[in-house]
Amino acid sequence: MAFAASCNMAGTFAIASVLHEDPRYFVENSGRFRESVRYAVTRVFICRRDDGTTGTNWAGILGPLAAAGVANSHLPKDSQGVGNTFGNWGFALAISAGTNILREYWPHLNKKLGLPPMGVDSSPSIVKPGEGPASSRPSPNQR
Question: pTM higher than 0.85 for the full model?
Fold first, then answer.
């Protein structure tokens, strides 16, 4: 959890803000498996910028590296080192690519599993006073 928090603080917030990058993942939904996977993996290294152009995803690359460095400092002395830091960094980039692939295909999986679409509230709506079926009955003062 600390690794994820460090990665988000460094990458999603600090680096992305300074370099004017948009850290969000935008689904391409091309319909072709190979193109969708390629797009999802390249988004680890390419991002949208605040001005609408694309560029190097420095926040997505350097954020996990900073988090791996912070995590490395909390390991026992025999487990610390540059190799361990870069190994954790590579693992974090692979997890990011896998997460992007899941985001790319989640709407399709969601539909196959019969789950409600994301962003749709399936809970009962809140009825405001004076609205809904109860408001059609006369109040006790009107009888």
Answer: no
